From TrEMBL:
Top-level enzyme category: transferase
Gene: lplA
Keywords per UniProt: Ligase, Nucleotidyltransferase, Transferase
Stored InterPro entries: aa-tRNA-synth_II/BPL/LPL, BPL_LPL_catalytic, Octanoyltrans_LipM/LipL
UniProt GO molecular function: ligase activity; nucleotidyltransferase activity
Pfam families, A to Z: LplA-B_cat
BPL/LPL catalytic domain sequence ranges: 33-224
Entries under PROSITE patterns matching the protein: BPL_LPL_CATALYTIC
Protein's name in the database: Putative lipoate-protein ligase A
Enzyme Commission number(s) of this protein: 2.7.7.63
Length: 363
């Protein structure tokens, strides 16, 4: 780890929703071995929904409700789930050299989360890390974090949640019935919290951000300095915004292999999901004469490399959901996946096992 050079701080409050996501992507795209490790402190001007790199927006979100609320939808190039974001949150975006971070993603999460937790504790909120990548207060979630690699940079992202609009969040997540939406809102209210809820009143953001930067300096034993984007980063920012704003990026594959097979005579679609400690895993497979002719892997997990879900889906093509595939899966997984915190090979195979069991019972 590089513990000598100072860390650049870019404080970018009051950015548009699109720019609040594009900024750290753009810095990562420009990153070289000479680039400074950078922390962006970002606050958006308007609310929006941000989905993870491996998610299908049409499966996760009620797009009609999204339109009714006038919320922009942005896909990030980092894993994790769909989140509601607004000016009551300050985003913490690390863009670091891999030499400045531990090798394992689990250890990176711990390093990244420690200053956040100590900041909360400093202001009287008894926060703690819950593996793999959540931050909790007395059993309620007050934050999570995601990780990814873009170009030569390693990314870690999270936020301080000063307050949160759980009613809108519950309204735009996809559910089958109104009763389930009421239950979703009840669950969110019970298991999600914020600084305002824990302290009993709203808090000014700037003093808490200042405390966080003090904790970063203490934990990483590195100085910080404030700066702006370089000319090259500003140029890249415009290009990145164009990409993130495109329908192809937002509604296309992201980190998934998009199934191209249409359901027709002789072709059957099957899907199943499994909740691992590292996130939700969902497989969608298309079968013809028991052979897998198309497949998609999606969810809110973190995985390295980012295109591993595509590779894993490709590895299923032409195969059967049988004992031979089951016996080879561990090797397939180890070959194609470098790291997947909280998600084992058996976890990743679990939805496929469910589909195989369903098929066997229907015969």
């Amino acid at each position: 780890m590089n513990s000598a050079s100072p860390i650049r701080i870019i404080q970018a409050f009051d950015l548009s929703p699109l720019r609040s996501q594009a900024i750290y992507h753009a810095i990562a795209e420009c990153f070289t071995e000479d680039s400074p490790d950078t922390i962006c402190l970002v606050r958006p001007t308007e609310p929006y929904i941000c989905i993870g790199y491996h998610q299908d927006p049409q499966r996760e979100l009620d797009l009609e409700e999204l339109s009714r609320f006038g919320l922009q939808l942005i896909r990030r190039q980092v894993g994790g789930g769909a989140v509601y974001l607004d000016a009551n949150q300050v985003f913490l975006q690390w863009i670091f050299s891999p030499n400045s971070l531990p090798v394992s993603i689990e250890a990176r999460y711990r390093l990244f989360i420690e200053p956040i937790v100590s900041t909360y504790q400093n202001i009287g909120i008894p926060a703690e890390m819950r593996p793999v990548n959540d931050i909790q207060v007395r059993g309620r979630k007050i934050g999570g974090c995601g990780a990814a690699r873009i170009g030569e940079a390693e990314l870690l992202v999270s936020s301080f949640i000063f307050d949160i609009d759980l009613a809108t969040m519950a309204s735009v997540l996809k559910v089958e019935t109104l009763k389930m939406r009421d239950k979703l809102y009840q669950n969110l209210t019970e298991y999600v919290t914020s600084i305002a809820r824990e302290l009993g009143s709203p808090s000014r953001q700037e003093p808490i951000v200042d405390t966080y930067l003090e904790q970063v300096e203490a934990r990483l034993q590195r100085e910080i300095y404030f700066d702006n984007l370089s000319p090259l980063e500003k140029e890249q920012l415009a290009s990145t915004e164009s990409l993130l704003a495109s329908d192809q990026w937002t509604y296309g594959g992201g980190g998934r292999r998009v199934a191209g097979v249409k359901i027709q005579q002789g072709v059957a679609m099957h899907h199943a999901a499994f909740k691992s400690s590292g996130g939700l895993i969902r497989w969608v497979v298309f079968l013809a004469d028991d052979n897998i002719i198309d497949a998609t892997l999606e969810g809110d997990f973190t995985i390295y490399p980012l295109d591993a879900p595509v590779s894993l889906a490709n590895a299923l093509l032409g195969r059967r959901l049988d004992a031979e595939l089951r016996s080879e899966w561990e090797t397939i997984f180890r070959t194609l996946v470098q790291q997947s915190p909280g998600v084992s090979a058996s976890d990743m195979f679990a939805p496929l096992e469910m589909i195989a069991t369903e098929l066997a019972s229907s015969r």
